[in-house]
Amino acid sequence: MQSHIVYKRLLSYSKVYWLAFVLGIIGTMVSSGADASFAYLIKPLLDKGFIDKDMTFIHWLPFILIFVFLVRNAANFMSNYYMAWAGRSVVTQFRKDLFAHFMRLPASFIDNTSSGQLLSKLIFNVEQVAKASTTAIVTVVQETCFITGLLIVMFINSWELSLIFLCIAPAVAFIARKSSKKMRKLSQNVQQSMSGVTQITEESLEGYKVIRTFGAENYEIARFNVLVDNNRDREISTIATDSLATSAVQLVIAILISCTVYFATAKVAHITAGTFVSLISAMLAMLKPLRNLTTVNSSIQKGIAGAESLFQVLDEPPEPDHGTKTLERAQGEIIFHKINFGYPGHEKQVLKNISFKISPGETVALVGKSGSGKSTLVSLLPRFYDNFTGKITLDGINIHDLKLKSLRQQMAMVSQQVTLFNDTIGNNIAYGRFEEVQEKDIIEAAVAANAWEFIREFPNGLSTMVGENGVLLSGGQRQRIAIARALLKNAPVLILDEATSSLDTESEKTIQSALEKLMKNRTTLVIAHRLSTIENADYIMVIDNGEIIEAGTHYELLAQNNHYARLHQKHFKEVEAQ
């Protein structure tokens, strides 16, 4: 995407806060004008004050200076306050838009993108964008107004010598144009390296137990150090490029001042001492704003690079939701008809010609070795993945014809990897239904899930914080909170994805008892690792390599003495060996 298109789109975020920008720019212009007036005051200060001894001027001079300082300080506050308010508002809006879009992105995008990279965009890249959309604008307006004021002072003092300044404009423009292209590329490299730093930090903090158990602290530290060093090198390259461009501009200005001094002292231009000092002061004062204008290019290029990466995410289409129908509460009839599916970007078909029917209230179990396609199959029902061929219906309605919200309202899920949020136990149970339920409803769900017995032992009860992803609770406790959450939702369709596979035997009995209550009068899809938990299922399907190779009840499949029977025999040998 071309830089001017990116920057134009970036500035559209600032337009919402146009009033603050206008007030800030007015303050900036007044402040810059006041700064430029000091260079002009040097001429009368020398000519009238020191040489002519004009007492009227000398009398009024302190009042003039105090007035100029007051105007400058008031305008400077006005500029800083309103520009800062607008800038932080842009950052806030960008982060709101990004996070809201994260919540709507398809599962396939999230699967293929590191959460650390997305986090880096939300925190680091947005700050770069803010500097380009507000701070850079302030600098451009402020320094442009200051330079304009100084030019006016110079032309008032001596238009002949001031014409020399116009000769350097093409050289400054050339330097800025050459540095811009390189700065943008360097800024993209810095942001990419920062994504890597964020990613490894997040992974290391989440996996600290594994790292310490396997003694890999030094390995992770070495990985992190390489990335941080790489980030430093890229930052230094950016700074070096910026400094070279600034130095080149200052060299051009130095040549200008040297020429002005030569022509003035050679009496080519007939000027007074006050005029000469005022002229030179204006030229020297111009060094800083010109340097800042060159430097601001760095902020703009960083912002453009950051904005480009942000817009790439914002332009990612959200998960498709073209359905028009809704269901109040489904009966629970589910039909899969000739389903074929492969993950985007992968040639291999994960599911092949899958067809089956589940009647309302039935429990259907899926068994098979890891990687056979069981979890993928149940992920299609709530439309986490949409690019399958074939047809899935719920109560006779194609799930593509249902609105996503309505479809997912019909389902609850309990998986092996329980997701809990860094919040209270009560809020985790009531998740998604905070405004609909009361404390007694949460307690009833906790009792039914066999969770109340441990919740009430905590000093803060339902108000107990669970830590990040429930780290302060045991595996069995997390699982029971997940079951209580599913019970409270009271959805007609239930998905159990190996909900007891990581638990010890004692915990499994407690969880299984809670699951039986949860499964009652619900259409249930169960992915089971421990076959003893699904013997009472209405129907069992054996999946291998993405295909249904056997189907029937527990006893029917045992009688066939084929794949299921071998899995069952293997399972009980493992149980006996424990």
Question: Can you walk through the features of this model?
Answer:
The chain is α/β, with parallel strands linked by helices and 578 residues long. The chain contains 20 helices and ten strands. It has helices at 3-15, 18-51, 55-102, 107-111, 115-157, 159-166, 169-206, 208-213, 217-265, 273-285, 287-314, 374-380, 404-409, 425-429, 439-448, 452-455, 475-489, 505-519, 554-560, 563-577, and strands spanning 334-341, 351-358, 363-367, 389-394, 397-398, 411-415, 493-497, 523-527, 539-544, 547-552. The longest helix is centred in the middle third of the chain and has 49 residues, at 217-265.
What's the topology here?
Elements: H1 3-15, H2 18-51, H3 55-102, H4 107-111, H5 115-157, H6 159-166, H7 169-206, H8 208-213, H9 217-265, H10 273-285, H11 287-314, E1 334-341, E2 351-358, E3 363-367, H12 374-380, E4 389-394, E5 397-398, H13 404-409, E6 411-415, H14 425-429, H15 439-448, H16 452-455, H17 475-489, E7 493-497, H18 505-519, E8 523-527, E9 539-544, E10 547-552, H19 554-560, H20 563-577
Parallel strand pairs: 3-8, 3-9, 6-7, 7-8
Antiparallel strand pairs: 1-2, 1-4, 4-5, 9-10
